[in-house]
Amino acid sequence: MRSDEEQLESLKEWWSKNGKSLIAGVVVAVAGVGGWKAWESHQISKAESASQLYSELSQIVMNGTGESRDQQADALIARLTGDFSKSVYADYARLFAARLAVERDELDQAQSHLRAALDSTRVEAIELVARLRLARILNSQERVDEALSLLSVPNAGGFTAEFEALRGDLLMSKGDALQAREAYQKALEASRAAGESAPLVEMKLDSLAIHGDA
Amino acid sequence: MLVKIREKSRGIVAYFLVGLIAIAFSMWGMDSLFTAMRGDPNELARVNGESISQFQVDRMAQQQMRQLLQSGQIDPEQLDMNLLRQFSLNQLIQEELLRQKAADLNMRVSDRQVERQIVRMRAFQDENGRFQQETFTQLLRQEGLSPAAFRAQLHEDLVNQQLLGGLSDSEFVLASELTEFQLLVGQQRDYRYRVIAAEDFISQVRITDEALEAFYREQIARFMTPEQIRVDYLIFDPASLVAGMNVSEEELQQEYQRYADTLRSQSSSYSAAHILLTYSNNAEKQAATQRLQEARQEVLAGADFAELARDLSEDLATARRGGELGPVQPGSLNAAFETALFAMSEPGQVSEVVETEFGLHLIQLLAREDASVPPLNEVREELRSRLLAQPLRAATSDKLEQLRNLSFSSESLKEVAEASGIELHQSGWLVRETLPSFWAESAVREALFSRDVIEDGWITEPLRLQDGRYLVLARDAYQPRQQQPLEAVADEVREHLTQVQATKMAREAATTQLEQLQAGETLRGNWREITGATRNTQNAPRDINREAFRLSNNNTAGLVTLANGDTALVELQRVQQGEVSQDQAELAQLRRLLLEDRGYRLQAGFVKQLESEAKIELR
């Protein structure tokens, strides 16, 4: 057992060795936590404003009517893609912009919105859907090869059925019934695997039936 | 020098450690340290490391069960909790995937948005569409949720909706797609068909014994008898105890009296008028009594009660209406008052002076409508069973106790039957998949094929049936799944092979006809003509219509073998593309339907996509 004085002495010694760095450490840590929290709350409020704008946008596009609908929606889209361009809300805003353009029959503009979404998003599902929609517009403009090349991804994941069904349509317009049939078949299989029906694909497959198989 | 370096390095380590701990706290909070330390024994699944517990799954399954039962569309007996749990687990996994993705993408909903959503929910509003705090708390309590938990849940739901809605709500339909859809779906076809019946070839079919045996050997697994059991059983019907119970005529009379009294007092209606006088001492009371007695005499002599009430009554509210009280419900007034009132039978009759806590009353019966009490004979049976209910319950529970003890201690069900005086029955062979009548009830089915019964030969406890009777059973014979010998199934096999052969011959005959048709020959007779058939037409059998839609202008004829073995020869005559509507309202409606369908598929696709990216472990 050491005496109290000895203990006090060793404590003092320890303090003289480590005291400064300990205080510095605590100060740095407190500053760090404070800074982190401030940054975090800034991020939260930023995300919440984007979310608010996005909710309004979706509300207006789904329920609005007339010219004011497009004007209000365009203003919201501009703010989302400008002030929050890196957020997922901006991705969705671009998809909405494409929808509005299609409704106005401005297919080229719709394409550029979809391309922007395709290039900027970091969400795979959004990328796949943007590809799909672009390819559909190209198909309607009879730009079949461009559409086909957009659809050639290694794995269309949860959207395989939609990808293959569209590929089937595109191959049909190229006159390649054999490959079209294969694509429709894949689409049908993907739908069935997910427990869903695909009546349109079945109709198209039927019309491509090879004689003799049932 | 060396000491200096050591001091310095210690300082750096201290910085580093404190910094590290501080970061951990700020990022994940205190909880993280604790949850990291304990594993969850209730865990059912892990989604990217986040666990889903048995508790969550059970709670959701129970919620769904409650909803299903409330909807009244499902029989509680048929509810399969395991299926509901499986369903709930899937749903929780999907919600967790969405939650993680939304968090990953830094998607958020502010508390204000949550509040606004709550205020907008129909369930919490009154009929004027205003939010009702009381309804809100009450409904939450019914669901066993705290407001904070509900808000958190709603918060999550809203974020998930944003994540999913971004894909489905931004969907569009191109004009060319709308046209293509109408051309395809609305297509109509003209065609004709003829059926080559398999039945016509049956007489030509010869099945040899060798073929029979070969088929039996090949398909041996098809010829198994199912698992089946035959049991001895007895049925105890509590209603049978009634026969041995007696109700004396006297008891019945008493019960009838009670019944009639209650009915009269509950369903009769009286209306009355009164005159009230109050008093504050004995002298006043006497005077008041006297005054009322005089009034009574006056009324009996022909004076108008209403007039007197207006003049005399101190019940000012009714005095103005001539003392009228209106209809009097039994039990709503003072007992003495009611007794006096109900004792009168003729409208216009006046009571003696009645004393209540309000004062002294004189009552006149204004109108009386008696409930009609059915005669004893009409309600005899009902009263009898009412009288017997209590003793019957007691006797039933005694009998069940006896049966339970007997079935536990007896060697055979026959002993139980003899000791209890209940008739013994024997069932036929019972197959698990096709149980008749009460054998199919889940409790019975479970008992029938339980180890206790099948292997150990035990007698079951009394099992309650849905109709209120009780069943006790014990195995008589049991047969596991087993091979049937060829002799036992020869007829069945022969019939099957004959059918197969006839089907084949019909197909061959049809093929010949198809070739003749394709060679340009004319086939006469029994064609059926179909014109303007849609894809869902009712005018032709489904398989045949579908075949007609598989044909095309460069391949106009085909065969389809139907479920009954017949083969149809189908020849396409004309294809007419679907009509493209010009009606804007119709087109808008169609567009809406297509958007809805696509939106649904996109959301499902998104969830599938998340599943394919995630690491999901099931326990």
From TrEMBL, chain A:
Pfam families: TPR_21 (PF09976). Residues 12-209 form the Ancillary SecYEG translocon subunit/Cell division coordinator CpoB TPR domain. Keywords: Cell membrane, Chaperone, Membrane, Transmembrane, Transmembrane helix. One of its GO terms (cellular component) is plasma membrane. InterPro entries: SecYEG/CpoB_TPR (IPR018704), TPR-like_helical_dom_sf (IPR011990), YfgM (IPR026039). It is a single-pass type II membrane protein. It is found in: Cell membrane. GO terms for molecular function: protein-containing complex binding. Transmembrane segments: none annotated. Belongs to the YfgM family. This is Ancillary SecYEG translocon subunit. The lineage of its organism: Bacteria, Pseudomonadati, Pseudomonadota, Gammaproteobacteria, Oceanospirillales.
From TrEMBL, chain B:
GO terms for molecular function: peptidyl-prolyl cis-trans isomerase activity. GO terms for cellular component: plasma membrane. Gene3D superfamilies: 3.10.50.40, Porin chaperone SurA, peptide-binding domain. Its main location: membrane. The chain crosses the membrane at residues 12-30. Keywords: Cell inner membrane, Cell membrane, Chaperone, Isomerase, Membrane, Rotamase, Transmembrane, Transmembrane helix. It is a single-pass type II membrane protein. It comes from the Bacteria. InterPro entries: PPIase_dom_sf, PPIase_PpiC, PPIase_PpiC_CS, PpiD_chaperone, Trigger_fact/SurA_dom_sf. It is found in: Cell inner membrane. Residues 267-367 form the PpiC domain. Belongs to the PpiD chaperone family. This is Periplasmic chaperone PpiD. It comes from Marinospirillum alkaliphilum DSM 21637. The lineage of its organism: Bacteria, Pseudomonadati, Pseudomonadota, Gammaproteobacteria, Oceanospirillales.
